Q: What sequence folds into this?
């Protein structure tokens, strides 16, 4: 009598075991991701200053204040400039390098790691390297002067209007090789028979790539776009290391804005509302993409 | 697909003329120089005396080689208020990264195994919710996380940072293992079940032995991300900040003479572990990553 009961218990345990093992991860995700998101959303409707305070309900006042702040407007303009240039340039460079590398290049094995290694570095390291290389006093401008090009000027990193573009340069340097790898994988996945057939039909190289290869790379374009836009909106480390948001606040971004309002200016409510805007922007890009991915896989 | 990423394994159908080929090589080499430039600048200037940088040419090789900047960056440079160099922060990073990578990879492997081989109603939703957590801007969790770490007594400590990195890392590790195990024939699992093998036994004996390639991806990904993290380190590190935060502190410090050579040496020091991992195992990483992301 005892044995079947025990066996029964064992099979039932086996049935439950997967769920029991998965449960902690799921619970942690619910609490630390979704619970925390809710916490921050609620906080953005309160008048919290230095510490979270849930009794001082202010409605939408933080959002109104957020969008009236000049620094937030600067941050929005900067993220628009940065994200669009970063995504477009990385995609173009990545695609070009991938297509070129796919032409039976000698030394591809040596070139690929050179293109890719910046991805292994921290944005703080990247920022440090470019910060001093672009510094007019000791970096590129000085080098050109030393080499005899006395009139050469490159002071973007010190300029209110141009500093944002130095962040684009450093960020493109860091990730374009990775985008190249994504496109290269896509190119290597294309069936050669299709290309040969098109060539027999008399298509030129240009037509071949424009009409056949690039349309076939659609999934790689989509992945690149999603990854790059997500990196762009989150960009915090690179800005801190390269310009620290300056000169003045010329290179402020939503991520640096959130940090400074929450932790140094003691306007936690406003900081929380800026984080909510960031989340909503990323969600607008990621949710449809993830939804489509998951649906397909089913 | 996965194996074709490395090396030109197939003939490209596209044929190109000589002029075009010269142009292609030229562009490829120019970009290689562009990617190598900052590394060259950092390496060359990290072994120069400061005067050679401020009064000389950044691109020039050192006239007087010196390893002093490296020694200073490692053990005597001023980080914040104390002249400790990067050493203690480097150790913090190691103490943080090793357990965080190990835990998140093991948890991700188990999750991936369950989500593909022990499917249940609503499992896609569970996975979807975990997957989305990879992509949230971490600014949205900074305030409550600071609060919770304080309540747990983990604020400003290495265990606190480990917790944070495990929590926000399991989404990615679960994704990797799930995609990898999805391709593993479920019939083998069922057969083992009929033979009486249980949940852990099947995992241990059947799936784990074939998990090498994806474990490499997961470990490299987590290692690079956690080692390179700055936001969590600077927000929750307190007195146990990781090396990225210390490096930023060193470079941004506004007092005294800017010791560029020490900054460069420090930057290379902070980058060495991930560069090393990349050089040793980077090939497997890209291969595995592409296999996951392009398959879609």
A:
């Amino acid at each position: 009598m005892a044995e079947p009961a025990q066996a029964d218990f064992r099979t039932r345990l086996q049935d439950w075991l997967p769920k029991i093992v998965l449960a902690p991860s799921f619970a942690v995700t619910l609490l630390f991701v979704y619970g925390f998101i809710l916490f921050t959303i609620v906080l953005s409707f309160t008048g919290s200053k230095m510490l979270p305070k849930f009794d001082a309900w202010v409605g939408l006042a933080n959002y109104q204040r957020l969008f009236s702040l000049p620094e937030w407007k600067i941050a929005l303009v900067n993220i628009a400039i940065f994200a669009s240039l970063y995504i477009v340039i990385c995609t173009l460079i990545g695609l070009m390098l991938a297509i070129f590398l796919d032409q039976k290049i000698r030394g591809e094995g040596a070139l690929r790691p050179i293109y890719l290694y910046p991805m292994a570095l921290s944005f703080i390291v990247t920022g440090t390297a470019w910060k001093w290389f672009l510094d007019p006093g000791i970096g590129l401008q000085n080098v050109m002067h030393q080499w005899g090009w006395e009139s050469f000027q490159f002071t973007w990193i010190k300029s209110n209007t141009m500093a944002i573009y130095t962040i684009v340069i450093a960020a493109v340097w860091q990730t374009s090789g990775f985008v190249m790898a994504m496109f290269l994988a896509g190119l290597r996945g294309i069936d050669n028979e299709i290309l040969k057939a098109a060539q027999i039909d008399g298509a030129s190289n240009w037509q071949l790539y424009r009409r056949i290869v690039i349309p076939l790379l659609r999934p790689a374009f989509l992945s690149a776009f999603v990854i790059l836009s997500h990196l762009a909106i989150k960009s915090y480390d690179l800005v801190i290391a390269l310009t620290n948001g300056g000169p003045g606040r010329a290179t402020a971004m939503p991520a640096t804005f959130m940090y400074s309002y929450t932790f140094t200016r003691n306007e936690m409510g406003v900081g929380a509302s800026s984080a909510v805007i960031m989340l909503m922007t990323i969600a607008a890009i990621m949710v449809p993409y993830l939804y489509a991915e998951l649906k397909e896989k089913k | 697909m996965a194996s074709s990423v490395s090396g030109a394994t197939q003939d490209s159908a596209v044929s190109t003329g000589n002029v075009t080929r010269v142009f292609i090589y030229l562009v490829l080499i120019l970009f290689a120089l562009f990617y190598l430039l900052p590394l060259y600048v950092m390496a060359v200037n990290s072994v120069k005396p400061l005067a050679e940088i401020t009064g000389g040419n950044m691109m020039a090789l050192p006239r007087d080689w010196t390893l002093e900047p490296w020694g200073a960056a490692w053990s005597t440079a001023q980080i914040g208020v104390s002249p400790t160099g990067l050493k203690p922060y480097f150790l913090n990073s190691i103490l943080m990264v090793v357990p965080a990578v190990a835990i998140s990879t093991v948890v991700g492997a188990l999750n991936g195994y369950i989500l593909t081989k022990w499917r249940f109603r609503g499992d896609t939703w569970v996975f979807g919710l975990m997957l989305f957590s990879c992509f949230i801007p971490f600014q949205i969790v900074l305030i409550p996380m600071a609060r919770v770490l304080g309540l747990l007594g983990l604020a400003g400590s290495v265990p606190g940072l480990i917790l944070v990195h495990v929590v926000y890392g399991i989404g990615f590790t679960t994704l990797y293992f799930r995609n990898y195990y999805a391709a593993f024939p479920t019939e083998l699992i069922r057969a083992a079940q009929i033979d009486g093998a249980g949940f852990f036994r099947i995992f241990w004996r059947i799936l784990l032995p074939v998990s090498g390639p994806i474990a490499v991806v997961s470990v490299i990904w987590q290692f690079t991300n956690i080692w390179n993290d700055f936001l969590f380190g600077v927000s929750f590190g307190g007195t146990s900040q990781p090396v990225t935060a210390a490096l930023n502190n060193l470079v941004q410090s506004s007092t005294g003479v800017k010791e560029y050579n020490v900054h460069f040496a420090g930057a290379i020091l902070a980058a060495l572990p991930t560069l090393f991992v990349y050089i040793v195992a980077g090939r497997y990483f890209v291969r595995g990553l592409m296999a996951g992301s392009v398959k879609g």
Chain A has a mean pLDDT of 89. The CA atoms of residues 157 and 163 of chain A lie 4 Å apart. Chain A touches chain B through 115 residues (CB under 8 Å).
